[in-house]
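Run log, item B.
One chain of 406 residues. Sequence copied directly from the ordering sheet:
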Amino acid sequence: MEQMEQYKTLRKLYYGDPETYQQVYERRFSESTTVHLDFLIGEHPAFFVQDNAVIQKVFPILRLDKEIALLKCQLPQIALQQYTRKCLIDEVVLTNQIEGIHSSRKEIGDVLDELEEQSTHRKKKLRFDGIVKKYVMLQEGESLALETCQDVRDLYDALVLDEVMEEDPKNRPDGILFRKGQTEIKSATDKILHKGIYPEEKIFAALEKALAFLGDGRIEGLYRICLFHYLLEYIHPFYDGNGRLGRFVVSEYLARTMDPLLGYRLSKTVKENIQKYYKAFDTCNHPRNRGDLTPFLLMMLEMIEKSEEDLKESLKERVTLLNRYGDYIPQLPNAEKRDMQDLYFLLIQAALFGEAGISTKALQHCLPASYGKVRALLNSVPDELLDSKRVGREKYYSLKIEKLPV
């Protein structure tokens, strides 16, 4: 995260020459390219510097987005579906982990399975049902309406309220829409890092301004979504669940305006760079930084770029391996017939892209073949090459690609 380190924060400049500190602040605040927000950070008007360094951060993001799209075009549909599911599970597990909430991959997978069956019959509502359902929404291309305070509360209820209540019923929003009490954000050592805006009427006023900024089409969308994330965390409208809410809103924007898979990668990058994430919040919250939100913007743009780089490398590696193993299929046992070759290719995709493998039901659909035919084909794969596991009522299969001499 080089760019942020090159940008001298006002907070850091304060400890040098006071005259230079004041000059830099005045220059940054009055530059023609500076964007002013109708929002106060403490007593200081919020702004960010839209200089060349910031503008240049957008170009690699757009370039990587195109490269990811080209890589995805090389994937069979089943591989893409399985990889999307895997990334979705990653995102939900990791966004929960950032908040200190444990959710297993199996739990999230179970919710996905239950959601897939809801068109015919829905048996029960599982833990993390709301957050998984919302992330599935990104995959299906549904857009998020976020224009009013009521919209924010509705999204919060759908996304995390059930889990917040389960973790601690006292954290249920107790105001008109938000919290009516004070809240503090503390470090692991119990140090107070930030106090959310208080009382609730001030939360309403601040959130309305933040939403107006989010909807201002005159400003680059990436800048708006990155800084709305900061404003939402600064306001901290709820006792708990603000972080999960904020990261989902960023993910929704990324999934809607760029490759949808990017919406499932942000929490991984944030978790891997969590100290830089918190440091940027802390810097911009500090009175000596005087409302300059550029450090947070740079950090978030770099998080998005890093998410794309990781996604690109992950896809590139898997595409290379898929081609390599695919070329080897004719040499596999009993691969003389076309249906066995098709089965092997699906099992290889499941190993490279899947979460648990590919189910018997999915194999029936993809081949296509009857249950009996699928069973016969699976029985033709040597035991030492076939990986199988039971997840709930379904059996899942993949090829033990580590056994292949390629």
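Observations after the first pass:
- The chain has a mean pLDDT of 91.
- The beta strands are 34-41, 44-49, 184-186, 192-195, 358-359, 386-391, 394-399.
Flagged for discussion on Thursday.
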